């Protein structure tokens, strides 16, 4: 008979308390000490680490190291120490080993949380195979606009999508089955400026994000605020307000702010990494002279031992489980391709130039980015498939011209150079003799003079010009004054980028991505949040909105009125009483629906206190009576809107439901940073 979760919890508590009772101060402190693995060939450092291990003064490692090296250290910790406590082997998760997966922004563009969870599960399997048991991710960052410099590593601009994605990654990294534990995940969030700037709305968004992730997943560890990047979050200049949610009755996992507080009490500074740097000797001295209370150490060590127990590390089977899985290369490539397909966003297609079809006729490919194998993988340092590689794999005939002079480092951005004029002239002449032109631009936040000239030349020569943008920043030439009928945003799609783009261009796979951030100019003209086109046409009926005892129910019908199968993302937006006068509505739910041509589907959304409520700047979660504007549609602008009045009696019923959750009380701890 499988072991029940309650049985596991009881056994876990007994084990942890029994072990804690026989540990010395030196051994307890040792569990909070993580180090970088020794550099290859550094025998002195290697010897020092082994000595620390044997004395029980080291709790684990953080950073990249050889799996064989980690296995040897684990054996020392388990077999050659007094208590045999296994080690944490922590590292920041990458984007895949055999194949590079799409960037966080690309995954957000897919709006596909199931796909994200599959990707996380694969990354966890690769980490286990390399001897890791703790992944310092997901690192969740929200962008403020499409112009953000680090857009590739952001999860879009709205907290709902980001938290659903983050929860999916947490679930993928970890296992809910106590018999088959996965890795320990760490929710890291995010740019330290969000607590320093004291932006009330951004603060509320972050609180909702954290709450939502904790409601929909159970991350084994968290590092919030500046702690996510390796240093304490002293929002008001003091050492006492580390952004922490770990306390009795609240979050029960590893809250790294607790480690930071211990370091601060000892007068120590954290190192640059997310965990490393707590010196063993100085911390022991701080406990002995009373600067650190023994219960502070016990509280954190209790969580460490509990996490290692949950991972199964105290059994030989559990230790072996983290090193015996092999990931097939084909499995990684297949997932990388599927993820890349779903992340592509068709921004414009009027008149409908896409899909081209497999027999695309006389096609011209233009742009140095079309043959670039480094762009799709970003900063990974590895190569992926270019668009021309993708066409070659499908057997698509095409002609290729650079269109621009090659720049140093392979960049196609910059001012118009004399050599560009000749390249643009040659490309424009070739475009006149072609049926379709595919222009591919690389990584840039805006169109430069050279790109503008190239697009204008191609468009003048051939109206059937399709723009494909790589890099992290979506571009809409319409906003920038250069109208094009067809624009496809690919972004950093990883190793299988070229294959995925080629499939979408030819119609072998219909685009399904949606913008995770609005693509607008200062006048708010452009493309809204949630925008994205497919190769079919969907219509949604005006919704019916009903007020229940403790919830709002929204129903509608979605129709595929096109001629081919497609997928649509139906979005639900809310404007709360506190948002009155705000230009933007808040995304509170969405559903991805796949429908055959001519088919329909009934839709239902339920809104309760979790959706209607908001965090005040003091950290209190509140549901207010009043007029709420509810919008249902296919993007933030393509939506039906209706107001509904929510009376106090319904609000009170919603609040009673919330009272059974730990989240409202938990976030009371954050009032000091609001």
Structural summary, described in words:
The protein has 674 residues and is of the alpha/beta class. Helix content is 34%, strand content 18%. The chain contains 21 helices and 25 strands. Strand 24 and strand 25 form a beta hairpin. The relative contact order is 0.10.
Layout of helices and strands, plus pairs?
Elements: H1 5-21, H2 25-30, E1 34-35, H3 43-54, E2 60-62, H4 67-79, E3 88-91, H5 104-110, H6 113-129, E4 134-135, H7 159-173, E5 184-189, H8 193-196, H9 200-216, E6 221-224, E7 254-255, H10 256-265, H11 280-288, H12 294-310, H13 316-321, H14 329-343, E8 345-349, E9 363-366, H15 387-394, E10 399-401, H16 418-432, E11 436-441, H17 449-461, E12 465-469, E13 486-489, H18 497-506, E14 519-520, E15 526-527, E16 538-540, E17 544-547, E18 552-560, E19 566-575, E20 586-595, E21 600-607, H19 609-612, E22 614-615, E23 621-622, E24 626-633, E25 639-646, H20 648-659, H21 663-666
Helix pairs in contact: 1-12, 5-14, 6-7, 6-14, 7-9, 14-18, 15-18, 16-17
């Amino acid at each position: 008979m499988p072991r029940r979760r309650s049985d596991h919890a009881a056994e876990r508590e007994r084990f942890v308390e029994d072990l804690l009772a026989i540990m010395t101060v030196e051994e307890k402190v040792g569990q909070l000490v993580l180090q970088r693995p020794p550099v290859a060939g550094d025998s002195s450092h290697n010897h020092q680490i082994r000595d620390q291990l044997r004395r029980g003064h080291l709790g684990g490692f953080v950073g990249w190291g050889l799996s064989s090296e980690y296995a040897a250290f684990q054996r020392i910790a388990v077999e050659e120490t007094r208590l045999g406590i296994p080690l944490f082997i922590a590292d920041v998760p990458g984007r895949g080993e055999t194949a590079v997966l799409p960037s966080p922004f690309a995954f957000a563009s897919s709006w596909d949380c199931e796909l994200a969870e599959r990707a996380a599960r694969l990354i966890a399997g690769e980490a286990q195979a390399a001897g890791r048991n703790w992944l310092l991710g997901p690192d969740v960052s929200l962008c403020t606009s499409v112009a953000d410099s680090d857009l590739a590593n952001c999860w879009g601009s709205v907290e709902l999508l980001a938290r659903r994605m983050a929860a999916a990654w947490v679930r993928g990294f970890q296992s809910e089955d106590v018999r088959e534990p996965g890795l320990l995940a760490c929710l890291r969030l995010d740019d330290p400026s969000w607590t320093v700037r004291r932006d009330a709305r951004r603060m509320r968004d972050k609180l909702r994000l954290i709450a939502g992730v904790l409601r929909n997943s159970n991350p084994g560890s968290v590092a919030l605020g500046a702690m996510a990047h390796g240093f304490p979050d002293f929002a008001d200049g003091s050492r006492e307000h580390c952004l922490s949610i770990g306390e009795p009755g609240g979050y029960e996992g590893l809250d790294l702010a607790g480690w930071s507080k211990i370091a601060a009490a000892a007068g120590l500074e954290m190192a640059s990494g997310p965990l490393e740097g707590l010196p063993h000797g100085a911390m022991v001295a701080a406990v002995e002279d009373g600067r650190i209370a023994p219960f502070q150490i016990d509280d954190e060590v209790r969580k460490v031992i509990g996490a290692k127990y949950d991972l199964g590390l105290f059994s030989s089977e559990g230790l072996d489980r983290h090193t015996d899985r092999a990931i097939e290369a084909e499995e990684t490539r297949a997932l990388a391709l599927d993820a890349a397909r779903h992340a592509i966003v068709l921004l414009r297609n009027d008149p409908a130039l896409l899909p081209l079809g497999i027999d695309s006729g006389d096609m011209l490919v233009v742009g140095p980015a079309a043959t670039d194998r480094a762009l799709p993988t970003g900063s990974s340092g590895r190569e992926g498939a270019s668009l021309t590689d993708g066409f070659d794999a499908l057997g698509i005939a095409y002609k290729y011209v650079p269109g621009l002079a090659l720049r140093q480092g392979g960049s196609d951005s910059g001012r118009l150079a004399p050599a560009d004029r000749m390249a643009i002239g040659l490309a424009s002449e070739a475009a006149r003799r072609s049926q379709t032109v595919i222009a591919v631009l690389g990584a840039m936040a805006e169109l430069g003079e050279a790109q503008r000239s190239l697009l204008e030349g191609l468009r003048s020569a051939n109206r059937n010009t399709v723009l494909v943008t790589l890099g992290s920043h979506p571009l809409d030439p319409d906003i920038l004054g250069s109208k094009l009928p067809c624009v496809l945003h690919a972004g950093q799609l990883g190793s299988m980028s070229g294959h995925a783009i080629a499939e979408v261009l030819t119609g072998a796979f219909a685009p399904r991505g949606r913008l995770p951030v609005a693509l607008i100019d200062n006048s708010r003209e452009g493309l809204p949040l949630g925008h994205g086109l497919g190769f079919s046409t969907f219509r949604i009926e005006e919704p019916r909105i009903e007020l229940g005892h403790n919830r709002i129910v929204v129903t509608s019908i979605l129709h595929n009125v096109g001629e081919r199968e497609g997928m649509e993302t139906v979005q639900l937006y809310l404007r709360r009483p506190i948002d009155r006068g705000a230009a933007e509505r808040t995304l509170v739910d969405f559903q991805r629906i796949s429908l055959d041509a001519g088919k329909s589907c009934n839709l239902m959304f339920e809104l309760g206190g979790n959706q209607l409520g908001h965090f005040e700047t003091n950290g209190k979660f509140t549901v207010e009576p009043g007029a709420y504007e509810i919008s249902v549609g296919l993007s933030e602008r393509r939506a039906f809107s209706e107001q509904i009045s929510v009376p106090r009696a319904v609000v009170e019923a919603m609040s009673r439901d919330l009272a059974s959750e730990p989240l409202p009380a938990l976030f009371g701890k954050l009032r000091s940073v609001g």
